[in-house]
Write a structure and sequence with these properties.
It contains eight helices and no strands. The protein is mainly α. It has one domain.
Length: 179
């Protein structure tokens, strides 16, 4: 039992501080990435039943603009994680929308398992699955369209911006791998 609790102490050294340049480029890239998705939604989807920006894109921005060397930030993970999780979230809601507590748990846990199995683990995908379950009527009314818009298209926009901005500085390289 003591060994179990000793694991919670941690034994790794805290990562060192990153450079001011790295912080600046992460800030610029995330401003442009999330700002672009927000701009497109505001000016093109404002008076429609469609949506382009979802909360999980904030967490994706942290990965693809702030932790670009993480395996979870790579294109396959970004796109695959959101699309797989969106599909699972929508299917879960369509099948069991009477018990949101159960549907939410099943959607997120099944999305995690599917992302692991497909080697597309992207933590914001869990939120994408959850949003499909607990989102507004506007989200629910999208049905399976949620997979393409906002999940797939928003992730693709973020990927395009990550490719453009993350490779401007000499010391940044994105992606590390595609598949």
């Amino acid at each position: 039992m003591l060994n179990y609790f000793n694991k919670m102490r941690g034994n790794a050294k805290s990562p060192s501080m990153i450079s001011l340049s790295e912080i600046m480029w992460s800030w610029i890239a995330s401003l442009i990435g999330v700002g672009t998705i927000g701009y497109i939604e505001h000016f093109y989807f404002k008076n429609t039943d469609l949506v382009l920006i979802i909360g999980s894109f904030g967490a994706s921005a942290v990965l693809v603009f702030g932790a670009i060397e993480s395996p979870m930030a790579q294109p396959k993970n970004l796109i695959g994680g959101h699309i797989i999780s969106a599909a699972i979230g929508v299917a879960s809601f369509q099948l069991i929308h009477n018990h949101i507590w159960l549907t939410a748990g099943l959607a997120v846990s099944t999305a995690i398992a599917a992302m692991h199995a497909s080697k597309t683990l992207h933590p914001p995908g869990g939120a994408t699955a959850l949003i499909a379950v607990i989102g507004s009527d506007k989200i629910h009314d999208l049905g399976y369209m949620y997979i393409l818009l906002p999940a797939g298209s928003g992730a693709l926009i973020m990927l395009a911006i990550a490719l453009l901005i993350n490779n401007i500085p000499k010391n940044r390289k994105y992606p590390l791998f595609w598949y």
